[in-house]
Amino acid sequence: MRSVMILMLIAAVAIVGCANNGNSDEPRTLKFDTTVAGATFSVETQFFEKDTTKHIDCGYGYFVSINGKKLINQTWIPVVEGYNRFATAEDALNTGKVVVGKMLRSADLPSLEKDDLIQLGILKPDGSLNTRK
User: Fold this and answer.
1) 4 pLDDT band (50/70/90 cuts)?
2) What is the DSSP code (8-state) at residue 82?
3) Which of 83, 108, 112, 125 lies at a CB distance of 3.0 to 4.6 Å from 56, suitable for a disulfide?
4) H helices of the chain, where?
5) How far is CA 116 from CA 5, 10, 51, 108, 112, in A?
């Protein structure tokens, strides 16, 4: 049954679409939804302005919901020391998709590892941030 759920998630990832107003300079909100065994898993990105009180630059974060109930509110890149936001909405969305995949494979809350972010291209192999925009 789990293998069927994982295959459904992979298929959903392959056909996901993005909401974009056509201007790459403006913040975008991207959304991914997949329904597995009657539960709808959603990932949605959000742009955050610079937070001078916490010394966090502007960038993206993501939210993970199940059946509309927000379970994870990730406003900066996990695993990395300090408070860094994702450079692109795509990076945030793809990281959220990895989290959903881990949720489908385990009943425990997921945890990301440095290798996950390296595979996504968010971190360089040495563990430092990839500063692409």
Assistant:
1) very low
2) S
3) 83
4) 2-15, 89-105, 114-119
5) 20, 16, 26, 17, 6
Radius of gyration over every alpha carbon of the chain, rounded to an integer in angstroms: 15
Count, residues in the chain: 133
Amino acid sitting at position 2: R
Instruction: Convert 82-113 to b/e letters by CB count within 10 Å (16 or more is b).
Output: eebbbbbbbbbbbbbbbbbbbbbeeeeebebe
Residue 105: what are its φ and ψ, rounded to 5°? -90, -10
pLDDT of 43 over the 50 cut: yes
pTM: 0.78
Which is nearest to 73 in space by CA: 108, 38, 52, 48?
48
Helix (H) or strand (E) holding 73: strand 69-74
